[in-house]
Amino acid sequence: MKNKTGLLLLIFLIITNSSFAQQSDSVAPEATAAEAELSFREIPYLKKAFINATPTSGKDGILVGNLGVDGGNKAMILTLAKEIANNKHGKFDSFLITHKGKLLFESYYSRGRINLPHSQASATKAYTGLALGRAIQLGYLTMADLDKPLVNFLKDLDPTKFVEGVEKITLHQAMTMRSGIRISKEQREEFEKNPSQLEGQGQIQAYLEHSAPITLDSQRFKYQNDPMLAMQVLDAVVPGTAKDFIKNELLDKMDITTYGWRTALSGLPESGSRSSMTSHAMVKFGTLAMNKGKWNGEQLVPEAFISKATDRILYTSDEELHYGGKDVSNQGYGYYWWSADMKYSNKSYFSVSAQGGYGQFIILIRELDLMVVFTAHDNDTNYLQITAERILPAFIK
Questions:
Q1: Strand order in the sheet with 118-119
Q2: pTM for the whole thing?
Q3: C-alpha closest to that of 133 among 312, 318, 348, 299
Q4: At CA 366, angle to CA 361 and CA 369, rounded to 5?
Q5: 3-class secondary-structure state, position 243
Q6: What does the pLDDT look like over 215-270, one tens digit per residue?
């Protein structure tokens, strides 16, 4: 009887300790107040990776579920996560998956923290585009305005000083990186010597005065500073400032309160890079796009705008396919969102992604109702290939 009682007590202690360990591990790592003040490169690496296939429900509006129960092959994803934790795929900071509207998997590595905004680099472009879409939803612009000359919305410019062809630039072209503006490196350096001339709409005036002429040939896809054109129009058409509009009408609406968004020389928010978002904020932006512009049932951005933003409006070149591999092809571009076909077995799946240099990704595969979010600090990892090769198979029946 003593032996049986002792055995039961041992089992109880094992279960209790196991439950305690699981509960402790379910708390995602948070940055301390001191860490939050550090530059990104100064943030210490986590001593242990955090990997959770049963995310806990928070108060931030993100629905949660269980990997393997609500979708996905749990073993496949956990194997990949452990490989990431062992530095087999580069310097990841976070890796999250949502499926059918629920966050099923969440993990943090290296400098990743659940409450710490992570530099977004060029993923900022997608957020700039969504802010412009919000202005359309509220009636400050229309979808038809996308095809009108961009300078029509900027009343403080002096058109007598423009180079030839400026009237050919539309918002649609600016948001597909086809403004046609061509500024030499030497001219940009001249601008930097006198930054006061770039304040307000002076930035646009300077570019439109000193660009090479805008021609059909120059209006080809070129990855450059075109998002600043969209930000200038946003600032010109909304009440107050673009900064306040983005906060009040986009970020606050999605309860995104922990973020960074730097100010450009123009005095407007940076448009092409230099924002910082938490991984959960990235999930929210992805959910907004996945839900065709709706957040919690409210239409924040027109469905027609989201359709264009996440469409393959044009093909770029697979010769410079970003972060791809053998299973990724047909790279394209929408309104600051990249697109590509991801192949698994004998089928291709269309994907779109907000992309930031060194590994900031919001990847959407609508056919599978799947979203993958990465943050990292490694420019040599093929993030899209990893998604195609290791994540897609876990969600394909």
A1: 118-119, 275-277, 259-261
A2: 0.93
A3: 299
A4: 90
A5: helix
A6: 999 999 999 999 999 999 999 999 999 999 999 999 999 999 999 999 999 999 99
